[in-house]
Amino acid sequence: MNLATVRYIAQNKGVTPGSLCKQELIRTIQINEGNAPCFATAEEGFCREVECHWHEDCLRRSRRR
Question: What is the average pLDDT value for the chain, to the nearest integer?
């Protein structure tokens, strides 16, 4: 998912994107939704939150670390 799409989602959820990078913005959205700010922190490329909107992108970023 590209940054423009994440910014659009953020604005629709009442989150002001400002100059946040994609990772920070997604974590801010997660907090706003009442979830843990866990984007891109999946250890060993595994996450149980398979219904998460960010799941695929999260796992890709987690593997790069």
Answer: 92
- What CA–CA distances, in Å, run from 2 to 8, 43, 54, 57? 10, 23, 11, 10
Between CA 42 and CA 3 the distance in angstroms is 20
DSSP string, 5-59: HHHHHHHHTT---TT--HHHHHHHHHHHTTS---TT--GGG--S-TT-TTHHHHH
CA distance 53 to 48: 13
The pLDDT score that the predictor gives to residue 64 is 76
> For residue range 6-35, what is the model confidence (pLDDT) as tens digits?
999 999 999 999 999 999 999 999 999 999
1: three-class secondary structure by DSSP: coil
